[in-house]
Amino acid sequence: MRPYELIKAKRDGKRLEPGDIRAFIEAYTSGDVPDYQMSALCMAVFFRGLDAVELGAWTRAMLESGEVLDLGDVPGVKVDKHSTGGVGDKVSLSLAPLAAACGVPVPMISGRGLGHTGGTLDKLESIPGFKVDLPVSDYRRLVREVGCCLIGQTASVAPADKKLYALRDVTATVDCIPLICSSIMSKKLAEGIDALVLDVKVGSGAFMKTVEDARLLARTMIGVGAEMGRKVTALLTDMNQPLGRAVGNALEVVEAVEMLRGRAPADYTEVTLALTAEMLVLGGRAGSLAEARQKLERAVRDGSAVRKLQEIVEAQGGDPGAIDDYSRLPQARSQVDVLATEEGFVTGIQTEAVGLAAVALGAGRQRVDSRIDPAVGFTLLRKVGEPVKKGDPLVRIHYNDPAPVEDVRARLLAAYSCGPRAPEPQPLILERLG
Q1: Which residues form a coiled coil (predicted)?
Q2: Helix (H/G/I), strand (E/B), else coil: 192
Q3: What is the C-alpha separation between 329 and 93, in angstroms, rounded?
Q4: Sheet containing 387-388: which strands, arranged edge to edge?
Q5: Of 394, 371, 76, which Cα lies nearest the Cα of 242?
Q6: Closest CA relative to residue 250, chosen from 357, 394, 373
Q7: pLDDT, tens digit (0-9, with 9 covering 90-100), for 188-200
Q8: Alpha-carbon gap, residue 44 to 200, rounded angstroms
Q9: Annotated catalytic sites, by residue?
Q10: Which domains, and CATH codes, for the chain?
Q11: Strand, helix or coil at 251?
């Protein structure tokens, strides 16, 4: 089919042949299919979906659009983790050095922010000098020698997804299960892993708003992994409020380092330990989740986890001194607090609204070519269930450009709801699949 015919067929609910899907994605990767036609097809997929055969063909075409890395010379079971995206989700920054400190090789190809959610690469690049665009030869070497490497998609690894990832961000086609699944799995299967742990976020700050949708996405990715010969485990985790207290790139780096020192908020710490424990079990470094938790807690206590992060930062060209001296990270020039207008307890936070406020402040992208300010963001001074009095600070805004601050302040105030009673605590880990 010509591109027009393929778009029309999917728009009308028809099934696409694997060969046509492969040809379309190959042509898009080479530049013969323009962005506007891929945008149209993605929107058709958003409304019409892909069946199992179509999804398999789409994922394989994206995977094989570039080099599929072989890390056979790296001893051990290579395990990675992927999050479907949330607000304040800096788990990868602490999970990767934790797992590597416990002997699990972690080859991690990450992405940038999508929509209202932050991106691991943007956070890493807020560390002065940190390079995420290393050549594949360095990636292989660092996984072998350091035990971990965190890079972005190179020109040779899943190039179709690299182009499509940025396009989906600005065409309202991010929260689509087939496109999420194919993006994640093509990227992850290309990086040379043996096993994968998925963090599927659920709630107001996630692309999956319900447990049912999150479960469907998790099962879909587990199925694709099994078809490709990889072990995949998934945890459904709560995203009905931001994870931890920090939202914004450099601010989240600080909180990630604090987690490795045992000083981070309890919710962020728990989710990180739960996901990293799964990695240790899949990687053969622990016989049970309980044993894995003990090893992880020991790595935090004895300092080996934070030392591993410093080693990773230095190996990738970053300033390891910034892990000890946070003043070497980007700092916002000004701060202002959002004050509560009523008394009671925080009963809810519209987490997606918080993420969009961060984008408006400059911590995320409004367009593909938008520049991110790594210093700006929020500190959440009150979270769900915590008491508040009228005039108390709810959120601290860290900013450089004063122009968007009043709009951001209004967005954040509207995102908070208060009531006379604290809500019942909700579980952080909703379900485990795999």
Answers
A1: none
A2: coil
A3: 15
A4: 387-388, 344-349, 416-419
A5: 394
A6: 373
A7: 888 889 999 999 9
A8: 24
A9: 82, 161, 168, 183, 187
A10: 3-49 (1.20.970.10), 79-326 (3.40.1030.10), 330-419 (3.90.1170.30)
A11: helix
